[in-house]
Amino acid sequence: MKSPDMSKSTILVTGCCGFIGSAFLRRMVAQYPQSQFINIDKLTYAGNLNNLKSIEAKKNYHFIHGDILDRDKVESIFQEYKPNIIVNFAAESHVDRSILDPTSFLETNVLGTLMLLENAKKIWQSFDDKRFIQISTDEVYGSLSETDPPFNERNNLQPNSPYSASKASADLLIRAYYETYGFPALISRCSNNYGPYQHPEKLISLAIVSLFLKKPIPVYGDGRQIRDWIYVDDHADAIECLIQNGEIGEVYNFGGESEKRNIDVIQSICDIFDRIRAQKEGESRKLIIFVKDRPGHDKRYAMDISYVKEELNWNPSTSFEVGLNKTIDWYQKNEMWWVPLLQGELKDYYKKQYHL
Ligand code: NAD
Ligand code: DAU
Asked: Distance between CA atoms of 41 and 22, rounded to whole angstroms?
């Protein structure tokens, strides 16, 4: 099966009003003016039309407000646009929320994926340049100890949270579609993303916003858990690379080769903040508070990315230090984006999650 020609494709993307999907679209819509991009997004609390303001008027971009679980709507989108590439970002993505209530995670992340697979299978019989990219996560592999080698693509799936179990379920479904129907799917598993436009429920964005508001920064447990951080534009680049050069039926691990303990990440953010605000050294760190640990908290994630380096010639290009400075700078200049989010849904969530 030949690789699709990105310069003249019809690309259905899902969930691109969220953090990573919007970074991908802002890049791709500008880069491929002859291709059509159709974005279906339910606009949950995590979906935000402001993330795509810079491309909303472009002729090659179409937004459809809809749920990937809506059978009639999804079927009519496939009939009308006949996409030859699908990139499935749509998901409930926050681990803590999946612990509070897993239902929507199973619905969107598993059944929503099934809906897309079924519709693509129906229309793709006569296509020869087609591919389905599933945006999965390193969390499907479970947790590492401090001395384990990083996850590679052959690690078993051992998810520990309802969120990661739902993502692993979708990965298994996709594997079954490939094995049973020869369905042209590829799976990307990436580590923790950070960068502009990330909803302030996730660790880095929450810490930055808390600092601007002079509010406590909640660190779970002892803060010694480790994540492998990647700047979001590097992930967008990885997905573009996968569409063009990935092999059908394969799984690809992506990561930033930047393992950090949570407490070190938070302290770095505090120290940058002191510098940009010309505050006394150590001032911001006073806002750090240690709170009750996340149940089933995974100790460490780390990605072995030697396969994508060799096979796709892909490397992350943004160091953690550069990415973090860029991110803090963006939140400083874009209060208009995040201040409105602090009312309503997020306010209630903070109360429920942190009792703050
Ligand atoms: P996000 O929560 O910021 O955005 C999710 C988007 O999906 C939102 O726009 C939301 O409105 C939309 N959505 C949710 N349910 C939907 C439905 N039923 N139908 C249509 N749209 C729906 O998520 P994100 O952080 O951008 O993550 C995107 C994808 O990347 C997810 O699949 C996630 O599992 C995966 N991922 C995330 C990270 C990370 O660090 N954030 C890392 C690796 C993989
Ligand atoms: O690894 C990829 C995954 O990264 C993605 O699949 C998920 O969609 C994404 O949400 C993210 O999951 P994490 O649980 O790793 O990210 P989060 O930002 O929620 O937490 C990062 C670490 O920080 C984790 O060890 C928990 C901790 N944490 C998080 C929050 C929100 C805190 O200590 N305090 C907090 O308030």
From this structure: 11
The model's pLDDT over 288-313, given as tens digits with 9 standing for 90+, comes to 999 999 999 999 999 999 999 999 99
Q: For the segment 186-202, what is each residue's pLDDT rounded down to a tens digit?
A: 999 999 999 999 999 99
The alpha carbon of 119 and the centre of ligand 1 are apart by a number of angstroms equal to: 20
The tokens of 10 are what? 């019809």
Element of type H or E holding 220: strand 217-220
Determine whether the shortest distance from the Cβ of 14 to ligand 2 is under 6 A: no
Work out the burial of residue 247: count CB atoms within 10 Å of its CB; fewer than 13 is exposed, 13-18 middle, 19 or more buried: middle
Would you state the torsion angle of the CA atoms of residues 80, 86, 90, 94, taken in this order, to the nearest 10 degrees?
Answer: 180
With beta carbons less than 8 A apart as the criterion, state whether 10 and 84 touch: yes
Side-chain half-sphere exposure of 275, counting CA atoms within 13 A: 8
Q: For the chain, list the domains and their CATH numbers.
A: 6-196+230-257 (3.40.50.720)
Distance CA 107, CA 314 (A): 33
Query: 3-state class of 274 per DSSP?
Result: helix
Question: What's this model's pTM, rounded to 2 decimal places?
Answer: 0.98
Provide the annotated active-site residues. 138-139, 163
Q: Is the CB of 219 under 6 A from ligand 2?
A: yes
Angle between helices 113-123 and 162-181 (to 10 degrees): 20
Q: Is 193 in the pocket of ligand 1 (CB under 6 A)?
A: yes
